[in-house]
Amino acid sequence: MLARRAATRSASGPAIGRRLRPLMVGVGLQNLLLWVPVEKIFMTQIGFTATSIGVVAAVYSAVVPVLEVPFGILADRWSRRGALILSTLALALSSLVGGLSDGPATYAAAAVLLGVFFALSSGTADSIVYDTLIEETGSSDGYERWIGRLHVVEAVALVVSAVLGGLLAAITSPRLTYFATVPLVMSSIVALLRCREPRLHRATEPTSFRRQAALTVRALTSRPELRRIIALAALCAMAAQVVFEFGPLWLVAEKAPSGWYGPYWAAVVSTVGVGGWLASRVDFTRRATLAALVAIPLVAAVALVGPTPLPVIIGLQFLIGVSASLIGVRAGYLLHEGVPAHVRAGVSSGASTVAWVAFVPLSVGFGWLSHAAGVHVAAWLLVAITLALGVLLRRVLQPLPAPMRPAN
Length: 408
Prior knowledge:
Blueprint: H1 2-11, H2 14-30, H3 39-45, H4 50-77, H5 80-100, H6 104-121, H7 125-137, H8 143-171, H9 174-186, H10 188-193, H11 209-221, H12 224-246, H13 248-253, H14 261-279, H15 287-303, H16 310-337, H17 344-373, H18 375-397
């Protein structure tokens, strides 16, 4: 117990802060996406319907799983910092192409580039955080605290961009928000270049790409307890993705004034930071906590099925987002605990790939149902996700798995 407390104090020390500060600044600048709060408005302006919005979401959702694991393996073999820098370039180019788009076909190209960004960035920042803690302290006890701080930085950047993007769109046009995003995103490269990447994943003997891929796939599939954790992480990502991608459709259905979209999006994106902040403060071993984490997102999803006042809609989506973020941080910690350093980014990317693969048909189905029968009917899909999330959460966390950490 004393050793654990000492490791926790060490993991919160200034050395860790100095090591991770450039990463946090870089990730924060990556999330200054001024176009995000007005994206759906812009898409409808250039000819999108609810169905085609779902199709475009499926486009980049299909790109990610194709590239995610290979890029994760590349990050393990080459450089996780380098993968983050390449992801920044893809994000900046996606914003530029999005601003130049005059129809769904051109915008689909921006969606493909956005998928490349997600694939390159998947599993990199969290692997850097985990390995930095191991490298500096020999313990991962502070992971949830530090990854929570990183999520808070992401959320603050997204909230700021939601407010600024909404104001800029109101003063000028939604299209300009895409162009204004490009220099903000590109500035993150300066910070990322100052990030000192941990070397733990290079401690093993170099192997061929095929061998590395085989080790990654084996780590992903060989152990039932790890497969359950991967499924839990995937369900968290899917629940959050539904809120992020299709949440504004509830505002469209309720004919919300344009002034609602900025504050609404600020509330939604803040869930990443709130869930991350709570992750190190929640006792997952308590039955009451587990029951609340099962019930809250499910009840909120069921409430979204019926007609609901706008403030309540925002509150319900906020609860789902916070729950998904909070549980997702815990699932990520358990996942990192269960794999060695030299395949950590690849396995983390693989877990994310599961979510993206499942989200492709989900996005098409949600978009089609929203167009054909209304977003309240489509909300039953979100109910199904939160129900599965609750069932699996109880399986994974009660009782808590025995420590699974292999040699790093």
